[in-house]
Amino acid sequence: MNDINVWGLTEKEIDTTKYSLNATLFALGNGYIGTRGNFEEGLELEEYDGTFINGFYDYYDLSYGEKYKGYPSRSHAMLNVTNGKKIDIYINGELFNVEKGTTKDYIREINFRKGVLTRKLTWISPRGDEISFESERLISFYEKHLLLSKVKITPINFDGSIKIISSINGNVKNITKENDPRIGVEFNGDELRVIKSSIDDNIGKIISRTKSSDLGLVCVMSNRLDCTGECSTSYTEYNELVSHTYDVKAMKNEPIILQKYVLYKTYKYVEDNIEKITSDNLIILLKEVMDNGYKFYKCKQKDYLDEFWYNSDISIDGDDSVQQGVRFNMYHLLQSVGRDGLTNISAKGLTGEGYEGHYFWDTEIYILPFFIYTNPDIAKELVEYRYNLLEAARKRGKEMQYDKGALYPWRTINGEECSAYFPAGTAQYHINADIAYSICKYIEASEDEDFLVEKGVEILVETARLWLEIGQFNDDGKFHICCVTGPDEYTAIVNNNVYTNFMAANNLKNAYEAVIFLKNKYPLKYRELADNLNIDEVEINKFHEAYINIYIPYDEDKKIYPQDDSFFQKPAWDFEKSKGKYPLLMHYHPINIYRAQVCKQADLILLEFILNDLFDDKQKKRDYDYYEKITTHDSSLSTCIFSIMANELGYYHKAYDYFIHSVRTDIDDIHNNTTAGVHTANMAGTWMSIIFGFGGMREEKGMLRFSPHLPEKWTSYSFRISFKGRKILVSVDEKGVEYKLLNGDPIVIYNKEEKLELKR
Amino acid sequence: MNDINVWGLTEKEIDTTKYSLNATLFALGNGYIGTRGNFEEGLELEEYDGTFINGFYDYYDLSYGEKYKGYPSRSHAMLNVTNGKKIDIYINGELFNVEKGTTKDYIREINFRKGVLTRKLTWISPRGDEISFESERLISFYEKHLLLSKVKITPINFDGSIKIISSINGNVKNITKENDPRIGVEFNGDELRVIKSSIDDNIGKIISRTKSSDLGLVCVMSNRLDCTGECSTSYTEYNELVSHTYDVKAMKNEPIILQKYVLYKTYKYVEDNIEKITSDNLIILLKEVMDNGYKFYKCKQKDYLDEFWYNSDISIDGDDSVQQGVRFNMYHLLQSVGRDGLTNISAKGLTGEGYEGHYFWDTEIYILPFFIYTNPDIAKELVEYRYNLLEAARKRGKEMQYDKGALYPWRTINGEECSAYFPAGTAQYHINADIAYSICKYIEASEDEDFLVEKGVEILVETARLWLEIGQFNDDGKFHICCVTGPDEYTAIVNNNVYTNFMAANNLKNAYEAVIFLKNKYPLKYRELADNLNIDEVEINKFHEAYINIYIPYDEDKKIYPQDDSFFQKPAWDFEKSKGKYPLLMHYHPINIYRAQVCKQADLILLEFILNDLFDDKQKKRDYDYYEKITTHDSSLSTCIFSIMANELGYYHKAYDYFIHSVRTDIDDIHNNTTAGVHTANMAGTWMSIIFGFGGMREEKGMLRFSPHLPEKWTSYSFRISFKGRKILVSVDEKGVEYKLLNGDPIVIYNKEEKLELKR
C-alpha cells in the first residue's frame, strides 16, 4: 500500500480478471452521461461495457405469480446507449489488443483534480512491431453533452501502416437475465432501436429511439487526426455502426494523434421533427465544441474540479488509503449526480446496470447531506427532482386507493413505482417522510425560502396527508401507523415501526409549521395553495394532533425502543447457525427472516442519528448496544450509520472499524459486486461518517454544532462545510480543533457546548 | 321455482349466454375423469370446454418481479385432455347445430340417482328437415376409465342421408391468460402433445404425453351403430383427431342409435414401452366394456348411486329449491373426489380450470367431514393422499430451511408448493395443523387404528415438529408463533393468530398422545418409527410443553379474542366507502386490507366451531357478534361456518340466511364465476351447515351429540351419519327428533344433554 495516489486511482498492471470490476472504478461521468472505463480498443471478451444517460430508460413488464390491485404492471430500467468510446487500431494489419502481444510500462490513472482518465503503455505486436500508446478520456463537467477522447500512437521500431477506426456504435444492449440473473432485467434487447444512422462531412450521427418510453437519443461524432505521414480517410456506416477510418503511412517515432468528439443529447419524442431539431442543434454544438478544442475542455474540467474540491475536500493525514477512498467516493458522487431537476442519483450512479438505474430513499437520507453541506446548488436540483415527481406521487397515492396526498415510489426513475415486491417496496412508506425531512434540511442550510414557498410546502403537505390516510387514532388517544416496513428490510409489514412513526410525526410537524408560516408571511401564496390543494383548518389541525400524539412503543423493562410493536416478541436469530450465509436474503425465505430479531441495517439507530435531539445519550447507548448485536449490515446503508453513532457514544474503535468497512467498499470490492456499479449511498455514507461521526457535526434549530474526535491512526484531518451562505473550514489535529470562516458574514457555531462566533 | 327437480337438474330452454355456465353445472365425473357438460355436437363458439383427469398436470414456470429463497420456481396445473365427447351429425349435408334452424321440446337433465346426463330435442334444419334427437352421457362410477355416450337420431319428415362422425380429439389446450386472465395460467398450449394417434379394427387411439411432468395419457374409442337403413363406415385419423364416420341412408321414423365407448388411462412415463403396455391393456378393457354393453354400465351406475344416497342423503321437506341445492352439491362432491390415495378433490372439482385443479386445506376442513361421516372409505383415500405427500412435505420443509418436520404445501397436486404469493400461501402454516386435525377426526370416526399406527402417527409427528421450528418460548414461558397468516386472507403475516395457535397446540397434543399410545400399545412399531424419524423423549416432551403453554392473546376489556396479537390495534374498515367494491381484493391493494380490521372469511369463528369445546357459549357469542360485523365473506369458505355458529348461538334467522347463500352458490351462480368450475368446499359447507348447524352434531371424546333445530321454512328433514361402523338416521320435524340405528351394534349418543342408547 505504499505510494497510494491520494488524488486519484492508479492501475499499474493489466489484470483481465479484474477488467470488468475496474471498468466500474475507472468509469467517468458528469451526472448526465456516464461511461464505464473499458479500453478504447476493447478486448475480445468484452463484458459489462456500458454508456448511460441519467434518466434515459425504457419499460418492461413486471410479472407476478399472483397480481393484486395497485401492483405496478411495469418497471423501467436505465438503458445502455450508443457506445462512443471505441477506437480500433491496426498496426501493419494486426489489431491492437493487449490480450495479445506484449504490453509494457502500463499505467492507467483517473485524476480527481483533472477529471481525466489517462492510459499509457508500450505494446509489441505478435509480429514484433512496437508502439507507444497513450489515451485520454473525459466527460465534460462544463459541457454536459460531451465525451472527449484522445489517443496518441507512436511507432517505436518500424515505418508502416497504422489504421485507426473511430466509431459510434448504436448496436448496444443491456445485460439480460440470461447474461447475469443478479443484474439483468427482463429486456428483449430491442429496447433501444437505431432509427437513423449516417456519416458525412466528417460528422457521424446515430439517432435511436426507445421501444416504449417515447424517448430518443442523438449521438454525433467528429474526429481530428494529426500526423506527419500521408493519411487517407474514409467514412462507413454499416449495421448501426458509424465510423471514420484513417489509413496512415506511419513513420518511426512520429506520433499520430486522434481527437474524438462525441456528443449525446436525449429528447422526449413528440413528433418526428423533434429528431431533426435535436440533431441539427447538436451538430451546431459539435462544431462549436470542435472550435473550442480539446485543451479548452481539459482546462474547464480542471476549473470545475478546483471549485468542487475547494467546497468539498476532506483532507486526512496519517492514512493514505483512507484519504484515497474518501476522495474516490466524493469524486464518484459528483460524477453520478443529476443536476437538472429532472434526474437524480441512482443506487449505482452512472457506472453500471445494478438496481436498473433506479433512485431510492438513498438520495434523501444518505446522499443529500453531502450535497447540502458542500454543494447546495446541486442539492437544490435533487430536491427539485422530488417536486417534479409530485404529480406522479399523487397519482401513485390514487392507485393505492388513498383519497388524499402523495405517495412517493420506493424505486423509480420517472416517478412511477417500480418495486415488484411490496413488503420491501411500497410498504416502506417512510420514503415520504425521508423526502420531507431532507427538504427541510436543505431549506434550513440553504435558506432557500423561495423553494419552501413555491414548492416545499406543497411537498410537505402532500406527504403529510398520506400519514393521515394510513394511520389512525386508537382508543389510547394516540396516533398509530399499522402495516408498514421500516428501513430494516429484514422485518416487514409491522405496526408502529419507531423509525416510521417518529419520521411521520416529523413530516406532519414540518407540514403543519410550514403551512402556518406560509399563512402568516405569504397570505396570498397560502390562499392559492389552500385552494389548489383543498387545505383547510380541520386538516391542518389534524396534522398537529397526529404528531403531538404519535404512538411510540417502548419496552419499560429493557428500557429500549423495540423496532416496532412486536419486535421483542420475536425469537432471537440463530447467528451461530447462519455463519457463512450472508447476506441472509440469499439463503433464507423472507418469512423466516421476518420472524426473528435480526436486522439487515440501521433502523432505530438511523433514527437516533437523524432525529438526534429526541433521544438522550443513555437511551442511545442502550439501543445501540442492543441493536448492534443483531444487525448483519447486509445492506451497504448500514455501517456508516453505526460508525456515526459509535462516535457519538464514544465507541471510537468500533466507529473506526465501521468507517473503514465503508470507506473502501468499492475500491476493494468488499461486497464482491462493484462490477455492477459503485454504491453511491455508501460513498456518501463515508462522508457522513467523517463529518457527523468524527467531526460530530449536528444541525439543530438552524445552528451547527461540532464535537470533533481525532481517530488514533490519523495525525490530523480537515473538512469544509457550506451553511447558510458561509463556508467553514474545520481542522482537527492532536492539539484540538480550529474553525475558520472562509467566506460570508460572521456566524455562531458550537464546539460541543461552547458557543463560538466565527469571523473572517 | 315451481316444479323443481329435487333429484336432478333440469334445463328446458337453450340459453346460449349461459352455455358455459351450464357446462359446469351439467359436468359429469367420477373422481378420476371429469368432463364439462358441453353438447356432443358442439356449438360454433365453443368456449370453456374441457375434460380432465384428476391429478394429471403439467408444469409451468412461476415468475416474480423479485424472487427470494424458497419461492417455488414452478407451478403445475390440471390439463385439459383429449376430448372424447364429440359426435358431429349432418342431416342431408347440413351440420346439426342448435344455434341454427329451429329447436323445439328441448330438455336436458342430470339425474342424481341415475348418474346420467340426458338431452332431448326436436330440430328443424334451416332447409326444413326435422329430426328428433336424444343423447345420454355417463362417466362410470363402476369402471373409472369409462366415458359412455349414446345418441339417437330419428328423421321425422324425410328419408335421406344422415352422417355421424364420432371422434376423440387430442388437439386440446388449456385456457390461457390471453383467453381469460382470471382463470388461465402461463401455458403455451403445447403442454399436452399427441405422440401417437391411430384408428383400425374399429378402435381409435390417441396417446399424449406432457411436456415436462413425464405423464402420459392413452385414450381409446370404439363405436357401435344400430340402424335399419344402409350404412357405410369409414375411419379417419387427421391432425390429432381420430374419427369413425357413419353414412346412413336414413328412413323416416326409423331411429339411428350410436353408442360411443371412450376409455382414459394415465401413466407415469418411465420408458417408451409403458405406452404400449398401457394402451394394450386399455384395448383389452375396451373390448370387455363393449361386451358388457351400455345397459350394464347404466345399471351399475344406478347401483352405485343407490348406495351413495343411502349413505349420504339429506331429505328436506318444505323447500324444494334447498332440497335440490343440497343434493346437487353432494352429487358434485362425489363426482369430484379422487379415491385412489394419490389424488384429492380440487377447489373446482373436475368441472373447470379455476385454481388450476389444485388441492387446498379446503379438503381437510370443509370437505373431509362430509366423507368421514357418510363415506368413510372415500375419506380414507383422502387421508392416504396426505400420507403419500409426506415425503414432498418434508422436502418442502427443507427448502424452507427447517431442520426437522414436514411443511405441507398451501396448494398443490403432486405435493410441490404451487403458491406464488407467500403471505397468502406458504405463510398459512395452519394447513399442517388442519391436516393433523382431520386425520384425527377420520381415525376417531372410522376407528381405523391401522392407519393411525402405520401412517397417522408419522404425519402427526412430522407436522407437529414444524411448530417447534417456527414457534418459540418467550420470557413469559408461553409458546408463541410469529409471522403466520391464519385462514382469513385479509390479514397476513401476523403474530399469534388465535386459530393457528390453538390448532398448532391441537396438532402438538395429538402428536404427543399418538406417540405415547404407540409406545404403549405397539412398542415395536414405536421403535421403528422413532429410529426412522429420530424421535426422542426430549422432543416429545417439547411437544407437550409447547401445547400446554400455547400463548393465546385475549382482550380483557372487550372479553373477546383478537384474531391475532395486533388485530384490535388496527383501524376499523370503512364499509361505507367500500360499498360495491367486493371482493375487496379486486379493488384494494393487499396492504390496505391487511391494515384494517376486516376479514375475508371465518377465522376465529371457524376455530370456535372446530375446537368447539374449548370455548364457552358466552365467549362464542361475544366473538361471533364482533367478527360477524367485519367479515365480508369474500371467500366461499365463510358463510357455511357462520351459519353453523349462528345455529349454535340461537341466531336461527341468520343461520338460515347464511345457509341459503351457500346452498345454491353454484346453481344460481352467486359468485358469478361458476363458469370456471363449481366451489367444492362450499358444497361440502352446505352439508356441514345442515349436519353441524341445523342438526347441531358435534363429535367430542369419541361420542356424537346432536342438538337439532328445525328451520321455520321446513316441515321436516333427515340425514344419515356413518360413525364407528354404524349408520344413524336422524329425522327432525315439528314434533321433535328421532334417531334410528340403521346398522351396526348399539351405540350411545347424546341428544343435547340427554344420553341415548341406539339399538336396531
Describe this structure in words.
2 copies of one chain form a homodimer. Chain A is of the alpha+beta class and 760 residues long. Chain A is built from 18 helices and 28 strands. Chain A has a 9-stranded antiparallel sheet. Chain A has a 5-stranded antiparallel sheet with strand order 7-6-12-17-16, with no helix packed on it. The two termini of chain A are 39 Å apart. The mean pLDDT of chain A is 96. Chain A binds chain B through residues 62-66, 68-71, 75, 400-401, 419-424, 426-427, 470, 472, 474, 480, 482-483, 492-493, 495, 565-566, 569-571, 585-592, 594-595, and chain B through 62-66, 68-71, 75, 400-401, 419-424, 426-427, 470, 472, 474, 480, 482-483, 492-493, 495, 565-566, 569-571, 585-592, 594-595.
Overall 3D geometry of chain A? globular
Q: Using the coordinates shown, work out and report the CATH topology of the largest domain in chain A.
A: Beta-galactosidase, Chain A, domain 5
Number of helical segments of chain A?
A: 18
Instruction: Give the amount of beta strand of chain A, in percent.
Output: 25-35%
CATH superfamily of the largest domain in chain A: Glycoside hydrolase, family 65, N-terminal domain
Mean pLDDT of chain A: 96
Number of beta-strand segments of chain A: 28
Radius of gyration of chain A: 27 Å
Output the structural class of chain A: alpha+beta
